[in-house]
Amino acid sequence: MGRWIAAVQKGFGKKLIRLHSWNAWLVALLAITGLVLVGGFWREILGEGRVWVRWIHIIGGLALLVPVVYYLFLASKHWKQIREKPNQKMNVILVMILLVGWIISGILLWLLRQVGPAVANTALFIHDLLTWVGLPYIIYHSLTRTAWLKDPKKRSIRLSEDAIAKPASVPTGKAAAVTTKPSSAQTPSPFYTRRAFLRSVIGIGLAVSVGPTFIRWLGSSLTTGGGSWEEMAASNPNKMVPDPKPLPASLPPEGGGAQGEFRVYTVTPIPSFDNSNWSFTIDGLVDRPQTWNWEQFLKIKRSVQVSDFHCVTGWSVYKNTWEGIPLNDFLKMAGVKPTAQTIKFYSGDGVYTDSITLEQAQLKDIMVAILHDGKIIPADLGGPVRLVIPKMYAYKSVKWLNRIELIAEDHIGYWEQRGYDKDAWLPDNLS
């Protein structure tokens, strides 16, 4: 084993340079794919390609294990080289914490179904925190340190004492006339080098570009769900009149309100509605197709339920108090024809659709919701009306719901066309 490690450590300096280069490319790949995955703009542009981006991100995260594990075999020799350099020691420790933290939290998110929502929510927060804090630093580190290691005057890797004591003999003849470069002791170093200037520019650029986004993310992550909901409600572009009056069971919401933070994902720009452009329809293979305007819709008998809300990307919001009309009530009002097999849901954005079977629709907690924790649902979160299917992942809970159609054939929804599971059942540890 000792011989094998010695063989691995041979050419230590060049291998350390390559490690920094590999690390820089992998982190850059993960940064780009990660930002694409959370960006609403890219969700619409990429469509089905987003599923491939997700897998590239997962594979890239697993590949990050390679330089981390490889470095462990070089660590003992590297540590000796920097034993008298506390700043470099701290840098190594910080980089390893970032890389290992990313890898572990990413794997936990990948294994959401196995680890459960409590662990996944914590892993998601840690993954995001390490990203916003560590990504600028590790990009800066990888870019500058790769060049730094190539400079023999700066790197900690030195020639052995034998090599210093016994320099190679200088050949005679014309080659002997070649003059040697002056040593660093003979050449005064400038007060502020070009490399130092570039490092500063990179560092300042990363801080300016990433800093404000991180501050906004940290603020939303540390506040309660009610605070963020109130902010979205205050800027809600929907102008529906009158406001629905919550039932006594909605206020105060059970358990004090929803626990967790919603993340806003859309495939189109967020639409807005008012009384003039909003209606709700149930049609297709039904005996009594019906359409309601907003005032009529508010007169339909409502009920209240408390349920958890789980996104396939790894986050959850617990104990949501939803108020609305059970889906089965709409089916009874319309009368389902024997030839109907599928219920198709339409979003008011004009693009998004999804579906469930009539058998799946027998679940009693599927609701067409108009209130959350006793308050209107803002446009960012799918209001004025959204579907809620607690036992399925949230991409089935269509936002801005304005039409239900009963059809005889199967229907593949927006995200199912792009690689998601058609039956979005939660695993046993979530449902």
Mean pLDDT: 79
Could you list the spans in which at least 5 consecutive residues all have pLDDT below 50?
157-192, 208-217, 219-227
**Biggest sheet overview:** 6 strands, antiparallel
The number of distinct β-strands equals 11
What is the approximate shape?
A: elongated
Helix content: 40-55%
InterPro entries: Cyt_b561_bac/Ni-Hgenase, Di-haem_cyt_TM, OxRdtase_Mopterin-bd_dom, OxRdtase_Mopterin-bd_sf
Protein name: Oxidoreductase
Keywords: Cell membrane, Membrane, Transmembrane, Transmembrane helix
Main location: membrane
Task: Please give the structural blueprint.
Elements: H1 2-9, H2 12-38, H3 40-46, H4 49-63, H5 65-81, H6 86-110, H7 112-115, H8 117-150, H9 161-165, H10 194-222, H11 225-234, E1 259-260, E2 280-284, E3 290-292, H12 294-297, E4 303-310, E5 316-326, H13 327-334, E6 342-347, E7 353-357, E8 367-372, E9 375-376, E10 386-388, E11 401-407
Parallel strand pairs: 2-11
Antiparallel strand pairs: 1-5, 2-3, 4-5, 5-8, 6-7, 6-11, 8-9, 8-10
